[in-house]
Amino acid sequence: MRRRNNRFNKTWAIATSVGAAAIAVAMFAAYRSTLNRLVPDNKSATLAASQQTYTFSAPESSDVPVQNNVSGVPKDDTSSGVSVNSASDAVPTNKPIIADVGNILPVKGEISHPFSNGELVKSETLGVWKTHDGCDILCDLGTEVKSMSEGVVKEIKDDALWGVYVIVEQNNGLDVQYCGLAKELNVKAGQAVKQGEILGKTSDTNQCEILQQPHLHLGVKQGGKWIDPMSVIDKHE
Asked: pLDDT tens for residues 191-222?
C-alpha cells in the first residue's frame, strides 16, 4: 500500500510540474504576441508613418481659423479677415446683375438742392429741418420730363405736398420718383416706358418746395432705400 501511495505522489508531482510549465509557456507566448503588436519593428513603423494621412479642419460654423503654421494646409487670410476657402465667398452662377448706371438726366439743369444723405437741412418753404431725400434740378415750368431708363409706371399720385408725381420701376432695379409735374401726363399706371420717353411736364404743384426756383424734384430708391440720384446718372450726360 505504501509503495502504491509513493508512486501516486510521484506521478502527481510530475503532472503538476508539466502543467505549470505549459501554463508558463502559454503566458510567455501571449506576452510576446501582445508586445509585438504594441511595439512594431523599425521597418514597419517607417512604412506606417509614410502612409499616414492627417486631416486638419475647423469645426463647422466656427470662427476658429485654420492652423496657419501647418505646411500644405489651406490658410485663412487673417490680415484681411477674409477666408480664402470660405463657401460664402464663392460667386453664384447665373446671378442677375443689377446695373445702376447708364441712366439719363430727366431734365437738363443745375442742381440747386442736392441729396442730403440723411442729414437734416432747413426747408426754405416749410421752415423746418428735414432730410432732403432727392435732388432738385432747376428748369423752367413746362419742361418735358424724360424717363431715366426703361421700366414700368408703378404709380401716379396727386399729393398735397409733393404735387403730381410719377414713380417708374426701372428694369435695372431702381424706383424713380418724378415730383412736381403737371396734371396732364403722357403716361398712365402700368404702362411700359422706354428710356427718354416723355412722362409729362414740370409745373408748380410741388407745394412743399414752392418757394424755391422752378425745378424737378427727383428721388431714387434702390433696395427700398433713398440714394443720391446723381450717383446713378451716366457721367457722359
From this structure: 999 999 999 999 999 999 999 999 999 999 99
Mean pLDDT, residues 152-168 taken together: 97
| Grid cell in block for residue 31 | 506576452
Enter the pTM of the model. 0.59
What span, in angstroms and rounded, lies between the C-alpha atoms of 133 and 221?
A: 9
Distance (Å, rounded) from C-alpha 73 to C-alpha 107?
58
Phi, psi (5° rounding) for residue 179?
-110, 150
Over the stretch 49-58, which tens digit does the pLDDT of each residue have? 444 433 333 3
